[in-house]
Specification:
- This protein is an alpha/beta fold.
- The chain folds into 2 domains: 131 residues, Rossmann fold; 107 residues, Rossmann fold, CATH 3.40.50.1980.
- The strands form 2 sheets. The protein has a 4-stranded parallel β-sheet, covered by helices on one side. Strands 6-5-7-8 form a 4-stranded parallel β-sheet, with helices on both faces.
- α2 packs across α5 and α5 packs antiparallel against α6.
- It is globular and about 60 Å long.
Length: 280
């Protein structure tokens, strides 16, 4: 009987120790990061900065590619099938098909809509607030960490923006008339350049439209043509040659150029390219 009593006591102790573990097993543990998939590196880089150690981020579209002309791969479908959260901008044509193919009933899909060019510091900061809100709602246990990370990152954005804007102002870019790809217009205007006209993708331009752009650029004294890496880095080359202007290609996404995996490295690269094109 004493042996039975001892066995019963041991089993009781073990059950009391195991109960909290079983209960906690019903919730997401703090050691397991939230699996987040994003369509672009713009969203992905912010999710990584705000989420920190509490998230695992997968970016679908390679940063040098055009998100508007992207076909999902089997690996992308698998990533979404295993994810808890999917962040998209809302204009990605492949997103709905990817969600359907993933067959993940537990997947939370959030469209993060922020107007403007996300490479511009004020827009980047606004996007940080939007992603912060999404992560805090999806994982409220780590909301305080997300808020702290977001504030730290926004301070980096402000400092970087002020420093680069000072460099651009010192180069008198406000006196530089430019022709630029429409997807770069928001950033180029933030930089302070005089945007004379914008243009779309090469396949969208007719010979007549190109001729009109060249005439307009010549009349305004355009000295620089700015292309967008993701929508066509060679679109403005011919126009630049006809105008007699310099040509440069910028990136709208972190990681578009080698060594630019973060937003601050990407914007610094863009500014360096602009100043180099002007001979500064």
């Amino acid at each position: 009987m004493k042996i039975l009593h001892r066995i019963s006591a041991v089993l009781l102790i073990l059950s009391l120790v195991a109960l909290p573990m079983l209960v906690s097993g019903c919730r997401a543990t703090s050691a397991q990061p939230l699996k987040v998939v994003t369509t672009t590196s713009l969203l992905g880089s912010i999710a990584e900065r705000v989420g920190g150690e509490h998230v695992s981020v997968t970016v679908v579209v390679p940063p040098a590619s055009c998100p508007g002309h992207f076909d999902a791969k089997p690996g992308d479908i698998q990533a979404l099938a295993e994810a808890a959260l999917f962040l998209k901008h809302g204009w990605e044509g492949f997103a709905d098909g990817l969600i359907e193919a993933a067959e993940n009933p537990d997947l939370e899909v959030v469209t993060v809509q922020v107007e403007g060019n996300w490479m511009a510091p004020p827009v980047q900061a606004q996007a940080v607030d939007e992603v912060l809100a999404v992560l805090s709602e999806a994982d409220p246990d780590h909301k305080a960490d997300y808020e702290s990370n977001a504030e730290t990152y926004k301070a980096v954005i402000e400092e970087t923006g002020q420093r680069l804007k000072a460099e651009l102002s010192a180069a008198n870019v406000d006196q530089v008339p430019v022709l630029c790809a429409q997807y770069q217009a928001g950033f180029v205007k933030w930089a302070g350049f005089n945007v004379v006209a914008t243009y779309g993708r090469l396949e969208e331009l007719t010979p007549q439209q190109i001729g009109e752009l060249v005439d307009q650029a010549r009349e305004a004294g355009v000295v620089l043509v700015i292309d967008n890496l993701q929508s066509g880095p060679e679109t403005g080359v011919g126009m630049a040659q006809e105008i007699g202007a310099a040509h440069v290609t910028l990136s709208n996404f972190p990681g578009g150029f080698e060594g630019t995996e973060t937003w601050e490295k990407a914007i610094e690269k863009n500014v360096d390219l602009l100043l180099e094109a002007l001979g500064k």
